[in-house]
Specification:
Strand content of chain B: under 5%
Oligomer: heterodimer
Largest sheet of chain B: 2 strands, antiparallel
Helix content of chain A: over 70%
Order of helices and strands of chain A: EEHHH
Distance between the termini of chain B: 27 Å
Number of helices of chain B: 18
Strand order of the largest sheet of chain A: 1-2
Largest interface: A-B, 48 and 41 residues
Order of helices and strands of chain B: HHHEEHHHHHHHHHHHHHHH
Number of domains of chain B: 1
Number of strands of chain B: 2
Chain lengths: ~110, ~475
């Protein structure tokens, strides 16, 4: 397993991916605007992509790169569905805020 | 140029191809023949396709093929879990035949079939890549299905499910990336090597992976979405989610826990899972006490039932897997039965007539349905004349046998609490009701009745002919 490439140790790439992931997770949990929450989720997906590509290079195994392409495709499909649902839910609302969505509780 | 995959690979996934093609056919027929076709053409095509798929999968019983470089492993394990998935799909399709104003369109049926494709993929997936593909195929279709009823609660359920489940998918995916970093391979088999025990990437990756799985199984710290989503989703979709999503996710969990963990790490890594399974039994059953909607109540019940199933897997013995599978089948049958009763009684209004107060006095108005509902609720509670009782006894036996006495004790406490919650509904049904009811006209909805009768027979029959397949072994390569 290679320990660094382009002069940057693998650990640094990994740290970057982890930081991106946790920024995304914090956003998905703390923000109340569904569009920002979706962006945060995309950030988490892309943090995983970065990790996959780094590890694919480190192990010289293309599977990681293929996985990243798969994730990009799935994330696109997910975004399409997500935006449609957000539009349907908030069509008649003056602003988008998940705190206003509370018919179901208990 | 040589093709990377041979006919062996494609034959292994033939059932999935048939099911996916059925979805396309449903759409095509609806497009071409809608003006002339009799009501229920889409539903008939979907039924035929699903049954054909079930037959094709049944033919794979006893074979052992690792297709697509070990990404899709056909064996008794995948066959049996696949059949449970298709059982749940058939049950959900039957509920779509209920009367009422908002009848499901061909698009709904096609999405349901494609969602079932994802679940079938999960039953056989043995690399993180196929697991991710299966989970997303299952979930993406379900986000849409949850919102496909023209009422506010359904749209809200779709949004909640979308946001929370996507976050869980991202956590799961990050776990997969770390596991790939640990082993240098997407295959689950590579994780079983002893070298993994000292690899921090493996521990972190498995942690994220299990958190994602726990969310999809609605185990306790990650359970809050389940009752909301089940209450908001249309009846057939809620029934589909309680059975199919759970069966597919338990298949993934079992494969990971049984076959993908190195011997030294298994105990320590899985102990938190058993712990939250135990807590789920208590929280799910306590949560049932305060509910006023049947779908919501069954959602909480499902949280506890998954806890019971995982209790059988604790100790990761082969016997435990057989008992867990048996209880999964029993749960599927009795749960689909309860949903079928709700579907027969469903009205076309906003909440589909599933509020518990609309069941008051049912014993006098519709004695047959009240008796059936009583039977299914007692089965869910685990009382003797039903298979639910046998399933729970087997789980208690295996949990006690593998030294997880505290799980057995939590199971008993949870069952005691649940008895009270189920008894409340049963008493409400048989208490005289002096309100004036609008004429309760039985609508022509034969399919839920058929489903109800079959579930009733199966719940009794499974007591006398317990389904305990011996060749149930999750393989990874």
């Amino acid at each position: 397993m290679a320990t660094s490439f382009a002069g940057v140790p693998i650990f640094d790439y990994e740290a970057l991916a982890s930081v991106l992931f946790f920024i995304g997770l914090a956003g998905a949990i703390a923000r109340r605007n569904p569009l920002v929450m979706l962006m945060s989720i995309e950030l988490m997906f892309n943090a995983a992509n970065l990790a996959f590509i780094v590890f694919a290079r480190a192990w010289l195994n293309n599977a990681g790169q293929i996985f990243a392409f798969l994730v990009i495709t799935v994330a696109a499909a997910e975004a399409a569905i997500a935006l449609a649902i957000v539009v349907v839910v908030f069509r008649s609302a003056p602003q988008v805020n998940v705190d206003d969505v509370r018919v179901l509780h208990g | 140029m040589t093709l990377p995959f041979t006919h062996v690979d494609w034959a292994a996934v033939a059932p999935l191809e048939v099911l996916a093609a059925t979805g396309l056919l449903v759409l095509l027929f609806d497009l071409v023949w809608r003006p002339f076709a009799p009501r229920g053409l889409s539903l008939s095509v979907a039924f035929l396709g699903t049954i054909l798929t079930a037959a094709l999968i049944a033919q794979q019983y006893g074979t052992n093929v690792a297709a697509f470089n070990g990404g899709y492993i056909v064996g008794n394990f995948s066959v049996l879990f696949g059949e449970v998935v298709l059982l749940g799909t058939l049950g959900a399709l039957a509920l779509m035949g209920r009367g009422g104003s908002d009848r499901e369109s061909a698009g709904t049926i096609a999405l349901l079939l494609w969602s079932a494709c994802g679940a079938l993929l999960l039953a056989a997936a043995a690399t993180t890549m196929t697991i991710f593909l299966g989970i997303e195929l299952l979930s993406l279709a379900l986000y849409c299905l949850c919102g496909l009823a023209n009422r506010k609660s359904a749209r809200e359920a779709a949004l909640k499910y979308l946001l929370l489940s996507s976050t869980a998918s991202a956590v799961l995916l990050f776990g997969m990336a770390l596991l790939f970093g640990a082993s240098g391979s997407v295959s689950l088999a590579a994780l079983a090597s002893p070298a993994m025990v000292t690899n921090p990437l493996f521990w972190m990756g498995s942690g994220f992976f299990l958190v994602g799985i726990a969310f999809k199984l609605s185990l306790v710290p990650f359970h809050a979405w389940a009752p909301d989503v089940y209450q908001g989703a249309p009846l057939p979709i809620a029934a589909f989610m309680t059975v199919v999503t759970k069966a597919a996710t338990i298949a993934i969990f079992a494969r990971f826990a049984y076959a993908a963990l190195p011997a030294g790490a298994s105990q320590m890594l899985l102990l938190p899972v058993w712990a939250i399974a135990g807590i789920s039994m208590i929280v799910g059953n306590v949560g049932m006490l305060a509910q006023h909607d049947l779908k919501r109540l069954l959602g909480y019940s499902g949280i506890a039932q998954v806890g019971y199933i995982l209790a059988a897997l604790a100790g990761t013995t082969r016997l435990g897997l057989r008992y867990a599978f048996f209880y999964l089948v029993v749960y599927a049958v009795m749960n689909l039965g309860a949903f079928a009763v709700a579907a027969v009684l469903s009205s076309g209004d906003d909440e589909e007539g599933t509020q518990i107060q609309s069941y008051r006095g049912l014993g006098a108005r519709r004695p047959l349905l009240a008796a059936a509902m009583t039977f299914f609720l007692l089965a869910l509670a685990g009382l003797p004349p039903t298979a639910g009782f046998l399933g729970k006894i087997l789980i208690l036996a295996v949990a006690a046998g593998t030294g997880y006495l505290w799980l057995a004790a939590l199971l008993l406490v949870g069952t005691a609490i649940s008895l009270y919650a189920y008894a409340k509904i049963i008493l409400a049904m048989y208490r005289p009701d002096h309100r004036v009811h609008a004429a309760d006209i039985p609508r022509g909805a034969p399919l839920p009745w058929v489903s109800l009768a079959l579930c009733l027979v199966a719940t009794v029959a499974l007591t006398f002919y317990p389904l305990l397949p011996s060749g149930l072994l999750p393989l990874v390569k």
